[in-house]
């Protein structure tokens, strides 16, 4: 009998002022054993400068189970957001993050955690995100950072940053998906009763006047549900607009306002997700995977995989298939 794969080692960086919500998200994604549902094993450790409980808002405290000396063993380091974005993180934390980055360890910051990475000097000259309400503050305090607005999360040089609160969930699920496959991420998402991935940007959440009645909302929801049920069909934006009883231009405008992305990109994102699941869980031949996911041809599917995932469908199957594909899939 073959030995089980070693647990993926994750470090949650703990220091006074981190947000309890982000700690909870990280713990829910990587601190829950779901191996009975096919998920890989994770070893989540709470690493701090010392053994003392770390205070958080609301009278909560987080008890570390490792010191920062454990970080060289971690394959992924997570930095929660902050209650105070101006007071610097403790220097031992900043030094540990610099050392981890120098080793090539992946580091991900949720929401205001980008301020911690910026304080460590890791984001100088790099793209980064934070909550839309904190964008100007991050720019003002760290002018060397290339602060972006219109995304849920971004990566630059193995450093990941996420937008607001819920975008931290998006980033965590994306990191699971990138390392362990779409089905593992979907299993985690199902247990959390959330979507495996969201398309769009945080622009859709920025405060702006809301119409008293948006009659397009129900029509767009129905169109999206229809599209998801018919992804294998040759859907066009014009056809979806007609179903919503809108002109293509009006449909595209309302769709972007509701989802933060274009109808075409939304379709492609969901088709890629469907193809990922088929590649992981079936030994269907590539042309059939392309047909069922709505790409029409293996060539088109391969082009989108290369563009969005920087890999090919065959390489993706090799990395994430639950069992070796049969000869008919070659």
What do these coordinates show?
The chain is of the alpha/beta class and 330 residues long. The chain has helices spanning 20-30, 91-103, 113-119, 135-141, 165-180, 182-192, 216-229, 237-243, 248-259, 263-281, 286-292, 298-309, 313-320, and strands at 8-13, 42-48, 54-55, 61-62, 66-67, 76-79, 106-109, 127-128, 146-147, 153-156, 159-162. A 7-stranded mixed β-sheet has the order 5-2-1-6-7-11-10, with helices on both faces. Helix 8 (237-243) packs across helix 9, helix 10 (263-281) packs across helix 11 (286-292) and helix 10 packs across helix 13 (313-320).
Which key terms come to mind for this protein?
330 residues; alpha/beta; 7-stranded mixed sheet; two-stranded antiparallel ribbon; 44% helix
- How do the helices and strands follow one another from N- to C-terminus? EHEEEEEHEHEHEEEHHHHHHHHH
Helix content: 40-55%
Report mean pLDDT, rounded to a whole number: 85
The Cα radius of gyration reads: 21 Å
What topology does this entry show?
Layout: E1 8-13, H1 20-30, E2 42-48, E3 54-55, E4 61-62, E5 66-67, E6 76-79, H2 91-103, E7 106-109, H3 113-119, E8 127-128, H4 135-141, E9 146-147, E10 153-156, E11 159-162, H5 165-180, H6 182-192, H7 216-229, H8 237-243, H9 248-259, H10 263-281, H11 286-292, H12 298-309, H13 313-320
Helix pairs in contact: 1-5, 5-6, 8-9, 10-11, 10-13
């Amino acid at each position: 009998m073959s030995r089980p794969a070693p647990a993926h080692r994750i470090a949650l960086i703990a220091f006074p002022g981190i947000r309890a919500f982000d700690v909870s998200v990280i713990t829910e994604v990587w601190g829950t054993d779901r191996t009975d549902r096919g998920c890989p094993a994770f070893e989540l450790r709470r690493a701090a400068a010392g053994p003392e409980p770390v205070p958080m808002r609301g009278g909560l405290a987080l008890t570390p189970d490792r010191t920062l000396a454990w970080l060289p063993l971690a394959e992924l380091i997570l930095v929660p957001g902050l209650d105070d974005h101006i007071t610097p993180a403790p220097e031992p934390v900043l030094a540990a993050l610099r050392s981890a980055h120098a080793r090539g360890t992946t580091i991900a910051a949720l929401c205001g955690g980008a301020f911690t990475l910026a304080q460590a000097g890791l984001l100088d000259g790099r793209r980064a995100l934070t909550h839309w309400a904190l964008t100007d503050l991050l720019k003002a305090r760290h002018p060397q950072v290339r602060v972006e607005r219109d995304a849920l999360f971004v990566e630059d040089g193995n450093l990941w940053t996420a937008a607001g609160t819920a975008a931290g969930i998006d980033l965590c699920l994306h990191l699971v998906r990138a390392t362990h496959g779409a089905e593992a991420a979907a299993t985690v998402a199902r247990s959390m009763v959330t979507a495996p991935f969201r398309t769009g940007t945080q622009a859709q959440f920025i405060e702006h006047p809301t119409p008293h009645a948006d009659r397009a909302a129900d029509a767009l929801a129905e169109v999206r549900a229809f599209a998801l049920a018919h992804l294998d069909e040759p859907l066009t934006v014009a056809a979806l607009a007609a179903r919503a009883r809108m002109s293509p231009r009006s449909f595209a405008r309302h769709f972007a306002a509701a989802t933060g992305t274009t109808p075409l990109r939304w379709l492609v994102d969901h088709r890629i997700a469907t193809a990922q699941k088929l590649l992981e869980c079936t030994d269907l031949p590539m042309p059939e995977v392309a047909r069922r996911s709505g790409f029409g041809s293996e060539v088109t599917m391969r082009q989108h995989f290369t563009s969005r995932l920087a890999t090919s469908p065959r390489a993706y199957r090799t990395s994430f298939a639950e069992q070796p594909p049969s000869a008919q899939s070659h």
